[in-house]
Specification:
By secondary structure, the protein is an alpha+beta fold. It has one domain. The chain is about 20% helix and about 30% strand. The longest helix is centred in the middle third of the chain and has 19 residues. It is globular and about 50 Å long. The two termini are about 20 Å apart.
């Protein structure tokens, strides 16, 4: 199937924005040399560079996919947009039963869309704007949340351009949540099963204008743009993600005035991506047309999608 480039699908009015990147040389020696977060007293990271340097790059063009959102394909673009008229207006304060009912409904939808054998949500989080905070306060909240893993508190909208998991980090994460039987059946047989991790992102309460989700076209990146960074996802577990280096050829997109009745699915990991996208780096950005707004709220689900490969 011929892939229609995102640049052709972006028909809305473009804007410009600032994004934050890791500021370091390329890191492709097979090691995770960077660590971001709080170290416990007994942790040893003698070969790690702690708290990697960041840089903010301004004036980056961001093209609008509004009007072509239903032409997006997870298979071709790493993005998929699904209408989702959901009657509950979820908040971080919502009853857990309401939140879990929403997760269950999304899981069913994803399983049907991708004809998957196994689908499960292993993490969810709410986010909201915290524009009034300084970067130091913001970073401290992120560190506290990483160590407590408390989902009853909303995270700040993310400032750092990233991918939620490296390939090694993705598989380690899934093995934490899958039974031994499931791991043997699905993860230990890559010749039979395709394993993907997708993020299902949706505004809550109202449409998002001021800090929408910026999406980096995988096909505009190169391997040197991806840098492994470790951090503690809890006091017991270390996660591994990609932080992105800036590259002037990178192409950014978003969907203007994203409403709660619209789901955005994007790829974080794919065990069998072939000629398609491997992942979608992403980050929120401050829309210049809405500089004083602070009402952005969203919920995101991290979902494992396991499909049997066609013979």
């Amino acid at each position: 199937m011929t892939r229609t480039p995102l640049s052709v699908l972006a028909r809305g009015t473009p804007t410009t924005a600032s994004f934050q990147f890791i500021d370091c040389p390329p890191n492709h020696d097979g090691k995770s040399l960077y660590y971001a977060g709080v170290l416990e007293p007994d942790q040893q990271y003698s070969d790690a560079k702690l708290n990697p340097a960041k840089q903010t790059v301004s004036g980056i063009p961001v093209k609008d996919l509004r009007g072509s959102e239903l032409s997006l394909s997870l298979e071709q673009h790493g993005l998929q947009f699904v209408p989702f008229p959901y009657h509950l207006s979820l908040r971080v304060e919502s009853d857990k039963q309401e939140i879990f009912a929403y997760i269950h409904r999304v899981n069913i939808l994803v399983k049907q869309l991708f004809k998957a054998e196994l689908v499960f949500t292993y993490d969810y989080k709410f986010r909201k704007n915290m524009n009034y905070m300084g970067e130091g306060d913001f970073n401290q909240i992120l560190k506290d949340l990483a160590l407590t893993n408390d989902r009853s508190i909303a995270d700040p909208a993310s400032f750092m351009t990233h991918v939620d998991a490296t390939p090694a980090g993705a598989i380690r994460r899934l093995r934490r949540y899958m039974s031994e039987k499931e791991c043997k059946e699905y993860l230990d047989h890559p010749e039979m099963y395709r394993v993907r991790i997708i993020n299902v992102w949706r505004p809550v309460a109202r449409a998002v204008y001021d800090r929408p989700l910026g999406l980096l076209d995988y096909f505009s990146t190169v391997p040197e743009d991806y840098v492994k960074v470790q951090f503690h996802t809890s006091t017991e577990n270390v996660g591994e993600v990609y932080w992105m280096r800036y590259n002037k050829d990178q192409q950014w997109y978003y969907i203007n005035s994203h409403t709660p009745e619209e789901l955005l699915m994007f790829l974080n990991y794919d065990s069998d991506y072939g000629d398609g996208p491997k992942c979608i780096p992403h980050c929120s950005f401050q829309h210049p047309d809405y500089p004083d707004s602070s009402d952005r709220q969203s919920i995101e689900l991290r979902i494992a999608v396991i499909c049997r490969k066609e013979d």
